[in-house]
Amino acid sequence: MPLPSGPAQRQVLGDTLAELAMSDGRIVVLDGDVGNSTGALTFEAAHPEKYLQMGIAEQNMFGVAAGLAVVGFVPFVTTFACFAVARALDSIRMLIAQNELNVKIMGGYAGLLTGMTGKTHQIFNDLAIMRTLPNVTVIAPADATELRQVVKAVTSVNGPAYVQIGRDASPSLFGGDYRFEVGRAVALREGRDATIVSTGIETTRAYEATELLAQRGFEVGLLHMPTIKPLDEAGLKSAAQATGCVITVEEQSVLGGLGGAVAEVLSSTYPVRVERLGLKDCFGESGPNDALLDKYRLSPQRVAEDVEAILNSRKGLGKRSPTG
């Protein structure tokens, strides 16, 4: 059964920051001339005196954010993920990461579904890049409920953080009793045949994929990994031990992101087979959301197909009958 629909993460970001700034005078928002797209205009309407329009000058924007952090503010920098990570990486690396400054980078329009903007505005290695920077916490929330808690969490934790944020409305995975914790993975489903490890909004599709697989007789577990850095190594090892087969699924390149992090950890702590599903070292393109997810095999149906193929190809199993 498909998950219920939920609000867009970008709108939740603006609402949450506006709410937090009511009681936390340290919070300011810097916008790279994309506030109508990232949700930052919601914050501007509520707190115009705390909103800084920096224009299309991302490197300079991060320099200003660094200065604000030095004097005690908590700057949230909002722009598209591709502009933050690719265009302004040197400013982030030199000014913010090296100096461990309390700057929060909100990478909007992440992944494939960027509103028909195409390959120029898509980036699929932002998690891979940001997790290699020392001192930076890297988080990719699955839905609006988790994002609200992520924003609150990074506000209270000192140091640089990168949060990946999707553009469009996405399914709701978590209820009101959910509690996010930095560095903690969330077991969403138990299984014996394999464990899917996913992150960001792709976790909602992976969840629906496990439902489809269950209808076909496969028992596939699901571990949601909202924090890419620091990674929950104990939770990951436990999930690997449960099935002996780990399959990462992410709306990112298969090179260097969640799949790379998982393979790195398990190769030294609990070596098992690790398969990585995601974009196959390629650029994206423009297109409707459902068509893009299908083409790049990230829709629930395509993920289920690929996981089933992996299970059927495992050594000694051949084309076994599910649960037989």
Order of helices and strands: EHEHHEHEHHEHEHEEEEHEEHEHEHH
Structural class: alpha/beta
Give the CATH level 1 class of the largest domain: Alpha Beta
Largest sheet: 7 strands, mixed
User: What is the general shape?
Assistant: globular
Plain-language structure description:
Helix content is 40%, strand content 21%. The strands form three sheets. The protein has a seven-stranded mixed β-sheet, with helices on both faces. A five-stranded mixed β-sheet has the order 9-11-10-13-14, sandwiched between helices. The chain has a two-stranded antiparallel sheet with strand order 1-8. The protein is globular and about 60 Å long. Helix 9 (202-215) crosses helix 13 and helix 10 packs across helix 11. The protein has two domains: 8-171, 3-Layer(aba) Sandwich (Rossmann fold), CATH 3.40.50.970; 186-313, Rossmann fold (3-Layer(aba) Sandwich), CATH 3.40.50. Mean pLDDT is 94; it is low at 318-324. It has 324 residues and is α/β, with parallel strands linked by helices.
